[in-house]
Amino acid sequence: MAIRNILKIGNPILRQKSEEVPLNEIRSKEIKDLVKDMFDSMKAANGIGLAAPQIGVLKQVVIVGYEPTNRYPNVKFDREYDGIKYRVFINPKIEYLTQETMGFWEGCLSVPGMRGYVERPKRIRITFYDMEEEFHDEIIEGFEAIVVQHECDHLDGILYVDRLKDTKLFGFDEEFEKAKQYPPIKV
Ligand code: ZN
Fold first, then answer.
1. Residue 120 has pLDDT above 60, yes or no
2. At a CB cut-off of 8 Å and minimum separation 6, what does 66 contact?
3. In a 3-state reduction of DSSP, which class is residue 169?
4. In what order do the strands lie in the sheet with 114-121?
């Protein structure tokens, strides 16, 4: 087990594009170790998603998943937000299936302590490989679609702060919390 250091905004690696994992390397020890380190690092930081560049590896590997936690204490979760299955997405490609958006107060382990309001398409099609080199083509919607889009953005060097609707809706979690100023989310 290795908990790796998570890079923070300002580190130029977070602004670079990640490379595809060659198919014949998906089942390699290198990728297995990378994914294991990513899960260890994400869980240690109490995150719900992590992309390889966040631990300094410019490869197209993303993980998501969480059990119900207190990470979003201000948000009243519907049942569907009670958790997300732990999953690995290798070489993910996203296609937007709707113009309809869903808004959420996003956070990022690379922008610690802060939150910002972002709206993203509600429903996406995603193709990717899993760790067994199986190809998947799926439709994902709702909160999981938001998390997956956030993580896949990291592979293009994009952070959620680049997608803020309004910079006034961005700040330290602690301050919003104190002021009780979280505007309602759009679902
Ligand atoms: Zn992030």
1. yes
2. 47, 48, 83, 84
3. helix
4. 101-106, 114-121, 170-172
Note the helical H segments in 25-73. 29-44
Between the two ends of the chain, the Cα-to-Cα distance in Å is: 37
- The rounded Å distance from CA 158 to ligand 1 centre is 9
Return the structure tokens found at 60.
Answer: 């197209």
Is residue 69 a part of any domain in this protein?
yes
The answer to whether 115 and 170 have CB atoms below 8 angstroms apart is yes
Q: From CA 48, how far away is CA 154, in angstroms rounded?
A: 14
* pLDDT at residue 179 is higher than 90: no
Residue 21: give the domain boundaries. 12-186
- Calculate how far, in angstroms, residue 154's C-alpha sits from the geometric centre of ligand 1: 7
- For the domain that residue 97 is a member of, what is the CATH number? 3.90.45.10
Structure tokens that stand for 6 in this block: 């998570």
Residue 19 scores a pLDDT above 80: yes
Instruction: Please indicate whether residue 19 is annotated as part of the active site.
Output: no
Q: How far apart are CA 148 and CA 77, in angstroms?
A: 18
- Establish if 22 belongs to a structural domain: yes
* Total of domains in the chain: 1
DSSP of 125-137: EEEEE-TT--EEE
